[in-house]
Amino acid sequence: MSQQAAKSILSGYKVVDCTIAMAGPFATQRLGDLGADVIKVEPLDGEWQRHTPAGGATGNRINASFLSLNRNKRSLAVDLKNDAGRAVLFDLVKSADVFVQNYRPGVAKRLGVDYESLSKLNPSLVYVSMSGYGEDGPYAHRPGQDLLLQGMSGAMLSTGRAGDAPSPAGQYLVDAVAASTAFEAVIAALLHRERTGEGQLVTVNMLDAITTLQMQELSVYMQGGLPQKRSAEPHAHVYIRAPYGAFATVDGFVIVAMPSLKTFGEVIGEPSFVGMNDTTDPWTHRDEIYARTRERLATRATAEWLAAFDANGIWAGPVYGYEQLLNDPQIQHNGTFVEYDHSSEGRVKAPGFPYKFSKTPASVRIGAPQVGEHTRSVLQELGYDETAIDALLRDRVINETAA
Question: What class does this enzyme belong to in the EC scheme (predicted)?
């Protein structure tokens, strides 16, 4: 283990990662970034995400999708449908702290890797089961796909223009929220174990994750009795007063967020705003305010408007693409992105870590592994000798690939 890894906050913890796609791998990558020894258990030909590159970004030997979600992990390629393969996993679980899976409902039980089975091998195990809709219930067998859950969450009808088709988020939002939820749950369960010695079953589902993210919006609806009511103009959020949204300028776009109408009207040259009441008019005249704001802001450049808004204390900001984001001085100051060398993909630049610790920093110790790259070393740590490992390779119980 490197000196950097030894200083990381989760160094010494072992995580068995039996997840695929995005939500599970993203959650376990966060654990790896904080120093945990994450062992990615894959089929002999590799996890599903290795073969489905987002955007067609295939890479050299590892596509961008897999690369982005599997750094700081070691790969153990083993056939869990084989009794000998399951025996390898059982040996691994005996010394593990965390086990994470996002199998389809019923698969873990059929494989014998459900919580009841593994907790008998290791009673202090934190076992995390991730799903789309829940462990059981009427939707348990539906596909837990990001866009489907965005639509079901209600969030799409909190923005946009009445009558238009709802607009999805520009990120894999539900996957990311579920990943962060699982990461948070693992940390909490480990804290409980530190205090009591007890392992436990932790369940996380994508539907609950995206629903509870809307704590404020749903409370406004339920407690305040205010329905979601989209405007004729494409207002950015049904529960925020106008003007609130992205507006075209001469050379781009600018975001304006719920300014005082008097000050805003004076700055943009719209006299009808000056006498409006900020408490009531931004709701009752939402379409009118949006339309007049759109007309006024289309007359000057983005930089001019931003300078004027900043000088008058109006909340406003630019609309970036990824190129502008990468070059933003605050992003550069924060060190938001990290760079590291990968054995097959070369120099990699990627988003770094959403947390900072003064004494136990996150780090990239290894890039995303080749399928089975660490099979031999993981089994050696479990006490398998070279003869036994070679026999498992011959029988196609495990697989290994050079870096």
Answer: transferase
